[in-house]
Amino acid sequence: LRKGTKSCAECKRRKVRCVWPADTTQVCSNCQIRDHPCSPQTLIPSTDSNLSVSESQRTRVLEDEVNLLWAAVRSLEATLTSCARAQSVSLPISEHNRSEAPVEQSDHTSRENNLSHAHPRCHLHQLLDTHILDSQGTEKTWQETEDQTSLVDLEALNHSARRDLQPLLPARSDVVALSAHSFVWSRVYTSLFPGVQMTASAEDMLDHYNEACKPDIDARSVANLLLSLALTVRQIPAEDLESLGLSMCSPAAFPETISVAVHRVVLVEDALAATLEGIETSLLFIRLSLACVNIKRTWLQLRRIVALAEMIGLPRTVAHLDITNTSLEQLRRYQIASDLWEGICMLDRFAGTMFGLPTGTGSYRLSPPKPLLRDGKVVPQVYLRYLTDMALQIQTLDESSAAGKSDISKLAQVHEIHKALEDLALSTPEGWFASLTSYLSADHMLQFWHQYLVVRTHLCFALQHDDAGRYGHHYNACIDACRSMIWRYVTLRPLIPSGISLCRVLDFQVMTAAMFILWTYSETSAQVVTTKLPQQIRSADLFNQLLPAMKTASDRPGGDFAHKAAIALCSLNSYMCNEDLSQESLTLRIPMLGIVTVRRRPALQKHPGS
């Protein structure tokens, strides 16, 4: 019986009220009057025959069955191939019983086992390589591991990801319209960061689009195109985006849609992500998420990229490359792997220094940098490589300060970093640092970041500067670099396409320079030191130029850091320069720090650096 029903089947069919004379009666009033058999409603279980299945559902079921058949065929092929290899290669125990030597095999190789082969010889290898046993030459490189990683699982995941991502591809007309806006940011990214192959022109993006529409394309290639398009949409202002006449439903929501989809179908799957193509997709995803997602989430994703690269043995393989008996295709893959690992380390180390988070690649040595100059011009990737090496040293300096080490040891570290930065600056062509053009170039970003590292190098001692001239060298170096940063920011920030990750990076970094400038001239005003008045006036002028630039940037896409920083700096400036001491404290909302409450120190307790 159907649970909770009170009407009989006949009343239900006639759609009339079913009245029962009493609870004990077997026939309702309507059936009794009509002399009709009264039967209760019964539950009819659903079967395949009475379920309506749509055409798309039937197609999906058939596709899944075909995929399972192909997976079974590939599994048999892999098993037969592995058996043939095992029969052809065996450990020689003795000459007379070679055929009787036992060979241990496994019918199923898990992803975890495959990943473990990518690492160099460990203590277990030593136990298998003694005066009795020999395991030399049997370890697998990351290339062999990648080729043998569960082909069945990888093909099935690739098919599923491709099926989910290809419907997200916009119309060709939309790609044509967007490709005209992708040149500036892709050119800067490609010249600065190694590892990720960006679309260099509109023609390249259209060629990539044609490849992505093919039924057998790798899903990670589709994801790369979608992420490139999402980055392009992010940096187009809303009014310009509407004027393009795109056919997609909601262009403004397109980046978020792509970010969620790529993360769900590609990045969370280890079999897809733990490959060179998967790591390249992950790095491109980092650039999109850094422009619009919480920094901590982006940092966790970056840590996962480092872990995946370590699991497939990428760092050690790149460090111990043997080009003997290596094909051209393998050399090409090794070059891609080397560029990817270098790009991961550069991003990890520079981001760690900027956001005050520990790096995951600090223990790895990179290959020596290439020549800094080519045809008399600075090679941006090489220059950035030098800067990231120094950023790692600055993190060590910060750790020394946090550990309370002596000033003598920290001064030695500061001197070493300052000397390296100075030598790097002297290695550039004459007038390179003084050049600021009306168009965006990678050189502008490098010059800004160079000054940022100078500030970070001297900051700990510059804040201890006093009237006696203690640490005066560090104070002067720091304030000069801060002024250079603000001057460059005012010129450079309007040139950067809005909505890309570089906007947030510059907004966050210039806040360090602005806060130090605030400290210098408010501290000067408090002490009434006439010798510093010219510096104070110049710093105040620069600060007044910075705030309008930050407010203008805050109105553009990706300007959330600039908006918060501008409000915090205005409030801090008013608080520090106000002689009225009635306001005891000030609450600020600062990017990456969150809500911070500051208050003036009492005059008797005031010390340098407060």
From TrEMBL:
Keyword Magnesium: no
Xref: CDD domains: fungal_TF_MHR, GAL4
Basic and acidic residues biased stretches: 95-111
Region (Disordered): 94-115
Keywords: Nucleus
Gene Ontology terms for molecular function: DNA-binding transcription factor activity, RNA polymerase II-specific; zinc ion binding
Positions of the Zn(2)-C6 fungal-type domain: 7-38
Protein name (Swiss-Prot/TrEMBL): Zn(2)-C6 fungal-type domain-containing protein
The organism of origin for this protein: Aureobasidium namibiae CBS 147.97
